[in-house]
Design brief:
alpha+beta, twelve-stranded mixed beta sheet, 19 strands, about 40% strand
């Protein structure tokens, strides 16, 4: 079924034993399938374990952890948006998945990168992704024709997007204040219905503040950080639902028939983003530890230890289209079918819709008058 180019390299070509064509990964049944004779071959179950890598060791010996996605991996950079995409033959560069621009650059051998530790395989077919987008479109009134053409002409492509996951132990020392509520009786004047001034009382909330300090600990596991800058980050995060318990040890077989983007966020940069995610959780821990009715947090100093990371590839179907000189993207979670997309409003569709409403109202008025 497979061939390797050199001893020690991962298998990178998947040839059909029946007709000799290249096999591609089939999401629905998880096999390598021949697009010509239909023969299916099971991807061997890997005995490898998904290992978290030491962050500190990487910083001191990064070069030793670099590799290519596959021995015959090719890489091409889009001249329009700058995204770098990796693929293996017989897949071709085609159009850029991120901006829809035809790729004119010549593919070259892929540069080494921090090799993926794990991959979440596609489980939805392209036809299922197209159906999900069409359903999403059905509730989008006034969508421009460019978007509809993309959806009805198989405008989405399967691509693995790079992500980092981080684990870390944190120990945080804090200094702040604990606020405790109490109530005082306050007198005030009020004018009654007869115009007389009446003296009344009410309870007013006050707060006593007490100095507070201490420490909190927390273990963070598998914080996911997006390592691409080529898609709308908020929409990618909104896809959500990544079942990381289904991650597989990386094998080039899962890439057959699909593309993968090279990461644009380096490991250290990604960890800084992970720190921001941790900070919000740590702040909540500190406030809970301070207690009381209110809290003032003046300082938090956090120490990180046992930091590990892994490079993972997550699957989406992605399409891009242009409207009024701007690029818009639509993406589908290739595990759940959730759709997120950018949609401009077509001025002319709205204009003619309003015109039609005005015409209907005018017709009703004319008919009403003629019936008198």
């Amino acid at each position: 079924m497979s061939e390797a180019s050199k001893p020690g390299e991962k298998v990178h070509r998947y040839v059909c034993p029946g007709c000799g064509a290249e096999l591609v990964f089939e999401p629905q049944d998880g096999t390598l399938t021949c697009p010509y004779c239909g023969r299916a071959e099971t991807i061997p179950q890997s005995s490898a374990e998904i290992v978290e890598r030491s962050y500190e060791e990487y910083l001191h010996a990064a070069a030793g952890q670099l590799a290519t996605l596959a021995a015959n991996a090719l890489e091409v950079k889009c001249s329009s948006c700058g995204a770098t995409v990796t693929f293996t033959p017989p897949e071709v560069a085609g159009e850029c998945s991120f901006c829809g621009t035809p790729i004119v650059a010549q593919p070259q051998a892929a540069d080494p990168l921090v090799a993926p530790e794990a991959i979440l395989p596609f489980s939805l077919s392209r036809q299922q992704a197209d159906a999900a987008i069409k359903q999403w479109l059905s509730s989008r009134w006034f969508a421009p024709n460019a978007l509809k053409k993309m959806a009805y002409r198989e405008g989405v492509n399967g691509i693995y997007l790079p992500h980092w996951t981080y684990d870390a132990n944190t120990l945080s020392y804090y200094r702040g204040e604990r606020g405790e509520h109490y109530y005082e009786t306050e007198w005030y004047n009020e004018t009654d219905a007869q115009g007389n001034t009446v003296q009344k009382t009410r309870q007013v909330q006050r707060t006593r503040w007490y100095a507070a300090s201490g420490e909190v600990e927390r273990w963070f596991d598998d914080l996911i950080i997006t390592a691409t800058k080529s898609v709308n980050k908020a929409r990618l995060q909104a896809l959500g639902g990544w079942d990381l318990q289904s991650l597989k040890p990386y094998d080039p077989a899962f890439l057959s028939g699909f593309k993968a983007q090279r990461y644009e966020v380096e490991i250290a940069e990604g960890f800084e983003e992970a720190k921001h995610m941790m900070a919000g959780v740590i702040d909540s821990d500190v406030r809970r530890d301070i207690g009381g009715d209110e809290q003032r947090v003046q300082e938090i100093q956090t120490h990180y230890s046992g930091i590990t990371f892994k490079h993972i590839l997550l699957p989406i179907y992605l399409g891009a289209y242009r409207f009024n000189q701007k690029v818009y993207q639509v993406m589908v979670n290739a595990r759940t079918g959730v759709v997120q997309g950018e949609r401009p409003y077509s001025f002319w569709k709205i204009f003619f819709f309003v015109l039609a409403i005005i015409a209907v109202i005018a017709l009703i008025v004319v008919l009403a008058k003629s019936g008198k």
